[in-house]
Amino acid sequence: MSTILITGGHSGIGLAATRELAAKGIDIVLAGRSPERMQSVAEQLHAQWGVVVRTLALDTSSLASVRAAAARLRAMREDGGIDPLIAIVCNAGGRFDGAVSYSPDGYETTFATNCLGHFLLVELLLPSLAEGGRVVYTASGTHDPDSVDGKMVGAVVEPDALVLANIGKNSDKAKDSGKALSAGKRYSTSKLCTVMYAYELDRRLRRTGSSVVSIAYDPGSVPATGFLRGMPTPIRWFSATPLMKWVSKRIGVTTSDVEFSGASLAALATAPDYSEHSGEYFQANDGTLASTRSARLSYDKRRAAKLWDDSKQLVHLSATEEPAQLK
Ligand SMILES: NC(=O)c1ccc[n+]([C@@H]2O[C@H](COP(=O)([O-])OP(=O)(O)OC[C@H]3O[C@@H](n4cnc5c(N)ncnc54)[C@H](OP(=O)(O)O)[C@@H]3O)[C@@H](O)[C@H]2O)c1
């Protein structure tokens, strides 16, 4: 038997992926910050498919929570509570509208939640992955400023971890036309960083001869999830209408539905078809899942290496925490 750890697997695209995985007989660790909702999903999946579903308290915006979750996961493995991990699916995330806010560690919430938490989780749990295991990152087409998605949400800024973590504090570099960076730009830039983490992880794994696979994924625009929860109700309602989907397709937005995007995420984490696609970016668009080009900037190796090293510094990664596959 095998197990997959997924963050944010109790709702939206993550839940659709989790259902697909459970239907294939794969055990699951649901990692997130909503214990009751995770428990309810765990019971449903176990009742329907007979799989083992464990829950793991994890707030990706808190470094202490990530470290505690990684320690509990390792303990679950050691006491035989779960089978070897065949994938880590970094799916939790969101856009955080309103004034800039900060994580318990004092980092800007979007960057802390979408980027640093998963960065640290992967560093800590890489040794728990089975041979040929996979790390799949849910990114977003908004990371590409040349795409319609990117233009609508807000063009990315420089993927500089030290600046992004401190947006709105005292860095002029993190300002956009004299104003604090918009929520949309904070989000799209966090997803550019996510794609760059996936590519940089692949490069580092290849250097050490690891068999682990690293993939970035854009699930497409899927309005019927909790993603727009920070938006006013009329916008949330309108964005989920067939008319909005029709308009989105007409203007070139990547569109999908929650079942297809979830099933695609599950496939990237498990299907043999994707085992040779480490370092690639996949996109779900109108019922098709395909490897495609990501934003030009995402292929910048120098920026990605700096992003990685700065992220290590921001999460205070110690030498003993860094896995041999990444040294
Ligand atoms: N929907 C779209 O159009 C779209 C498009 C491109 C990319 N994406 C990406 O797809 C992923 C899933 O989003 P979704 O659309 O399925 O929305 P969703 O239903 O809101 O799911 C987001 C998940 O992330 C979890 N999460 C948020 N902050 C967290 C934190 N600090 N710690 C742990 N978990 C946290 C949420 O948990 P709680 O329930 O506890 O809040 C929830 O389970 C996200 O990474 C999103 O950026 C979505």
TrEMBL record:
Domain of life: Bacteria
A UniProt-annotated Pfam family: adh_short
Coiled-coil features, chain-numbered ranges: none
Keywords: Oxidoreductase
Family from the record: Belongs to the short-chain dehydrogenases/reductases (SDR) family.
InterPro entries: NAD(P)-bd_dom_sf, SDR_fam
Record's keyword annotation contains Oxidoreductase: yes
Native species: Nocardia callitridis
The protein, known as: Protochlorophyllide reductase
Keyword Oxidoreductase among UniProt keywords: yes
